[in-house]
């Protein structure tokens, strides 16, 4: 069934100090659409919607929800019926209950990740050619979510066969079981990726940059502003997806990827690319190793009904990280 899911749209994260977050994300190169003592709405330079990242001040860092944009309200209704038929609890949030966004539904996906669907978001000025306002890494737009989950193979089949995503690339581990999968609705490598690990947790949110030099500029600005310890991994190039990447941790440990250089996946006869987990060129094309924190640490996610943290489960596939052989 095609629910007309367009793309990854926004994430709602809990943070413990809005002012600290604002200073960090502004330096990184996001645009602040709006802020008060308890909320910070951020977007990229080419985005014409109000925000792609909503940070809420709370006692503890967590992921409230990750959201997908759909074509129309009809798609929201159809998704709600679909999830209810599957026996899932759906939370409907009426227009006006959340700033800048129309009505939405929220549900825990098959892996336990809290997801949301919306069709409408307030329009704002697109700053693509306001070069006088471009700073830091000059973040352009949200690109994807990466989720660490117990059972990637189940997520893979559910998103492909129930929600009509397509697979661009995947990694196999022990017994040729799917260890990670990159799934898309828009014609890029992914809107969401699932990786084998302790979960459900949100591993990172990827934001698109216009070129690799913007990524280097981001590193320089972060370091000069005293944020060098927030740079966790990179710059480098992923074998998988071909992305030029940098991973940074925000003041609460939420991981943001700056990302550039993937490719077109629109053709229906595009064949998903398979990687072996221990292929050293898979994770970093140039061969250098990722730090353990990148495999071990991720953001906790919340129950859409209770607001409590979802209990973590050990991954189905034993191997939690590749063997590094060079
Ligand atoms: Fe990513």
From TrEMBL:
Belongs to the extradiol ring-cleavage dioxygenase family. Gene3D superfamilies: 2,3-Dihydroxybiphenyl 1,2-Dioxygenase, domain 1. Its cofactor is Fe(2+). The keyword S-adenosyl-L-methionine does not apply. Homotetramer. This is 3,4-dihydroxyphenylacetate 2,3-dioxygenase. The keyword Nucleotide-binding does not apply. Residues 7-120, 141-261 form the VOC domain. Transmembrane segments: none annotated. It comes from Virgibacillus chiguensis. Keywords: Aromatic hydrocarbons catabolism, Dioxygenase, Iron, Metal-binding, Oxidoreductase, Repeat. One of its GO terms (molecular function) is dioxygenase activity.
């Amino acid at each position: 069934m095609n629910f007309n899911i367009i793309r990854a749209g926004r994430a709602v994260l809990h943070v413990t100090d809005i002012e600290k977050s604002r200073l960090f994300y502004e330096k990184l190169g996001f645009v602040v659409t709006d802020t008060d003592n308890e909320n910070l709405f951020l977007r990229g330079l080419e985005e014409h919607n109000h925000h792609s990242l909503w940070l809420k001040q709370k006692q503890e860092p967590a992921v409230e929800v990750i959201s997908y944009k759909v074509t129309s309200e009809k798609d929201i209704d159809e998704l709600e019926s679909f999830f209810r038929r599957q026996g899932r609890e759906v939370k409907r949030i009426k227009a006006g209950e959340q700033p800048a966004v129309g009505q939405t539904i929220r549900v825990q996906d098959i892996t336990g990740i809290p997801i949301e669907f919306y069709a409408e978001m307030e329009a704002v000025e697109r700053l693509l050619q306001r070069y006088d306002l471009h700073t830091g890494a000059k973040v352009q737009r949200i690109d994807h979510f990466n989720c660490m989950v117990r059972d990637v193979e189940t997520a893979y089949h559910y998103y492909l066969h129930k929600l009509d995503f397509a697979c661009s690339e995947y990694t196999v581990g022990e017994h040729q079981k799917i260890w990670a999968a990159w799934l898309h609705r828009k014609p890029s490598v992914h809107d969401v990726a699932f990786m084998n690990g302790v979960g459900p947790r949100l591993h990172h949110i990827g934001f698109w940059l216009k070129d690799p030099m913007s990524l280097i500029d981001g590193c320089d600005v972060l370091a000069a502003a005293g944020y060098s310890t927030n740079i966790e991994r990179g710059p480098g190039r992923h074998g998988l997806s071909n992305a030029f990447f940098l991973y940074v941790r925000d003041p609460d440990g939420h991981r943001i990827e700056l990302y550039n250089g993937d490719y077109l996946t629109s053709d229906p006869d595009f064949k998903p690319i398979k990687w072996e987990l221990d292929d050293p060129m898979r994770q970093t094309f140039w061969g250098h190793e990722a730090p353990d924190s990148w495999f071990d640490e991720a953001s906790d996610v919340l129950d859409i009904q209770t607001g409590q943290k979802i209990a973590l489960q050990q991954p189905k596939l034993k191997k939690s990280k590749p063997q590094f052989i060079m």
